[in-house]
Amino acid sequence: MRYGVVFILLGACSLVLAVREGGLGWFWLWPEIAFTIVGVGYLKVGARVFGKRPDGSLSPARLVVLAPFVLFAWGIWAILVKVSREPAANEVAPGVWLGRRLRAGELPRGLELIVDLTCELWEPRAVRTACRYVCFPTLDADAPQIEEIVRLVGEVKGTVLIHCAQGHGRSAAVAAAVLVARGIAADGDEAFGMTEKVRPGVRLSRPQRDELIRVCSKMSRTKGGSDS
After folding, report:
1. Distance between CA 35 and CA 69 in Å, rounded?
2. Distance between CA atoms of 110 and 104, rounded to whole angstroms?
3. Residue 213: in which H helix or E strand, if any?
4. CA 41 to chain CA mean position, Å
5. What is the mean pLDDT of each run of 10 residues along the chain (228 residues)?
6. Structure pTM?
7. Does domain 87-227 correspond to CATH entry 3.90.190.10?
């Protein structure tokens, strides 16, 4: 919700600039529309406001309308990639990689599945065609569809890469759940500790942590029932 309010306020500031400047200043209506739509997405509509398609590309129509925000998001990603000393991806356990949005030359070897959790950024073509690719568009700081993703990853016995924009929140929650599902960690706390140890920048929002706990508790009950 905080992000939604911030983006709507940025949209309102753009509107003020457009009205005050007039003339060419009306250009500021474009950022106003883009940031307001994204703000509404965070407050109510969800990740579908970006129109990210199953192949990892963004809907051309949405991209035109939301271009000011998409460029803003991409710029932040590019700056953080440039200044960060953090690896593009880390192997948190054998066969489970956690990372940021990667470029083609940064992909780990032997990948069988790439899980993309971003909704605000397109996936580079060379990445999404490198192996099996699936997209679960999720707003930043929101809880991803952990249960559904874990089910999908369970079908793959080989190496999987789970990523969001920076590899700190959305993807970390999913990676932790995968560790529990594969029996590498006993519960969500242990799994998150493993991801945090390997990739210290990971931080879960309250919704992400609550969803991780819920899914891991459900998996534990299921395993307990099958063992009895």
Report:
1. 6
2. 14
3. helix 206-227
4. 15
5. 92 93 90 97 95 96 96 96 96 97 93 97 95 96 94 92 97 96 94 96 95 91 64
6. 0.92
7. yes
Distance CA 47, CA 137 (A): 6
Instruction: From 147, 143, 152, select the one nearest 171 (Cα to Cα).
Output: 143
Q: Which residues pair with 58 in a beta bridge?
A: 52
Q: Could you tell me which of 9, 61, 2 has the C-alpha nearest to residue 35?
A: 9
Q: What is the DSSP string of 127-150?
A: HHTSSEEEE----TTS---HHHHH
C-alpha to C-alpha distance for 204 and 173, rounded to whole angstroms: 7
**Rounded CA separation 9/5 (Å):** 6
Nearest-angstrom CA–CA distance, 52 and 136:
9
C-beta separation of 216 from 177 below 8 A: yes
